[in-house]
Amino acid sequence: VGSVGMALLVWVAAGLVVLLASLSYCELGTAFPQSGGEYTYLRRVFGGLPAFLYTYTSTLVTRPVTAGITTSTFARYVARPIFDKDCAAPESTEKMIAIGALIFLTGIGCISVKWMSRVQEILFFMKLGTVGFIIIVGFVALGQGRTSNFQNGFNNTVLHPGTLGFAFYDSFWAYDGWNNLNYVTGEMKNPLQMPLAIKIAIPLVLVVYLLTNIAYFSVLPVRTLIGLGEKHNAAIAVDVVQAMIGDSALVIIPLLVAASCFGAANGTLFTGARVVMESAQKGDLPPVLGLVHQKLVTPVVSMAFQAILAIFFLLVADLNDLILFFGNMAWLFFGLSMVMILVLRVREPNLKRPYKVTTAFPVIVLLASIFFVVAPFLQNPWRPSIAVGILLSGVPVYAIFVARMCSPKISNQISRLSNLSVRMVKSVIDVN
Known about the structure:
Layout: H1 4-31, H2 38-45, H3 48-79, H4 91-111, H5 113-143, H6 161-172, H7 194-219, H8 222-229, H9 236-245, H10 249-281, H11 300-316, H12 319-347, H13 360-379, H14 382-392, H15 394-402, H16 408-428
């Protein structure tokens, strides 16, 4: 966005949008306390096709891509202590580390929900410790008089909608997972605690990441930060701390940041598998993906399926383009969720809503969502057009495989293949 001041404003604005969106989601989550998130709400309010399109894009693109990006970042930081900052780790090395992380997390998720939750808790505190240390480093730099980046902080600001849209997409990665509670509402003992959790967590994340960025701008020149951001092997947190305390940061900080990314991937796989399982059990995805292990009571098939797709994207795709695909489709459905809230206010005014937000919240988030979906088309139309193409390709898939708008012969063949896949998996794994 061209300036330090605008960059910090984008971080704050992104956090406020996410806060309003999260509280709006709490209304949906407490009104419909079943697992599945947007899929459950879309099916309830708009019917089968919109719910399927959400599942289709989430299953095939957004969730696997998110897991792929976070494990890729994890791999970059794990490799950093081994390779010099001016000599990037081989891309193949980073990809193998990322694939290993995906397999490990999938294994934990298949064995025990409790283990996965415990891993998430430990990594969360490691993440807070890491950013806390970086913030302290930044304040030390400010105390030493390193304030040049903040002088004339809004000089060279770029206000092009496309540029701002991409900047918001980058910022939203810090808040990724804000809607994860809605995917496991059916497994929560008291869903009414969701609003309190949101009101504590989102402002905390906003403040922490705002201070982290202030720390970055306090230590390194703006041009250096821009250059690092353009490098494949960029590990900005390491360079910031190294600039202040020397080479002792080369081992500790990369591993702590890697742990943070590991936790993010863990949460993505956990919630994504639940969406796939819920969709399969309702008939929108092959039944085999809805199978649950009898003894472990975990969705082993959907967990493995998500991991395989994430590995596929890691091996064949440009993750920078996939970030755009993720953001474009994600905010399309976030906006549609806000429309659902407004529709339900009119269609079902007497619906029991244990938690209800002011109408202004979903309206503001809806307007923001429209901007986030449209803005990338103004910068580089072909990439968001691919995202739209992926979304629309789900319509014929729904017509043929879900609604069965095809000849009886083809429909019978589909049923036979579905039943065969279920029997084959059951013969190998103890599932039902």
